[in-house]
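Researcher: Please translate sequence to structure tokens.
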Amino acid sequence: MSATEIGARNPAWPSRRNDATVIASRAGQSVWSPALNPSHTKVVYVSASPIQIGAFNGAGHIVIADITGHHRHTITTGNEDSDPVWSPRGNEIAFIRDGSIWLMSPNGRHQLRISAAISAVHSISWAPNGNQIAADSGDPGRIAIIDLRTNSFRWLTPPGKAQDDPSWSPDGRFLVYTQLGANALFISNLIGVAHQLTVCNGHCSEDIEPTWSPDGGTIAFVRNTGGTQQIYVVPSSGGPVREVTHGSVQHALPRW
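Model: Translation complete:
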């Protein structure tokens, strides 16, 4: 991994149009895993050296900034935090530290580890109701739903399928995630009945990192085609996929 930036793009733009830069990495640093707050005024992300982020699955310091890129503040230190996500009200941030889920205020204070009996967490998504967090846990990964009110969890998906990257639908009724093996996206309701959304074959090697649009009609994701990663969109009801980004620059971790 080399120097990176956080870019913005309207899905309606032609794929060959350049991104608008929101956060450019500073000398010796890379930026990773951005997430916008509900009012789209702040962005939280991970920053660290390219070697650190590449070697430790995206872990580094967590930084918060205005959507303009101004007023950057490092809110965690130690190079051990990853995958920050905002609560639906924007008053908390969940993140991963050493395989566990933690919560904190947007200023980095009041850090609290969620002690539900789940470990080896790789990615998380906060439910629209604010009371649950979906996570993929273990090796191979499996999707769990954590209830923040009772500090308990239940498995959504069966073992042995290697699921990753959960994302809630805006109405809270479904989760989209990556399933390895099929290397495609699947959608599940909350009792675990799932169907395949994308098909990845031929020049496509994997569909990963899905995220639901605010209106629920579209899912953005990353498609790896022979070592080149670009962002695509697909209707959440199913249908043809459309490429949003293009070229030699790698794109990852889309967020609406």
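Researcher: Any highlights?
Model: Residues 5-202 form a domain with the Methylamine Dehydrogenase; Chain H fold (CATH 2.130.10.10).
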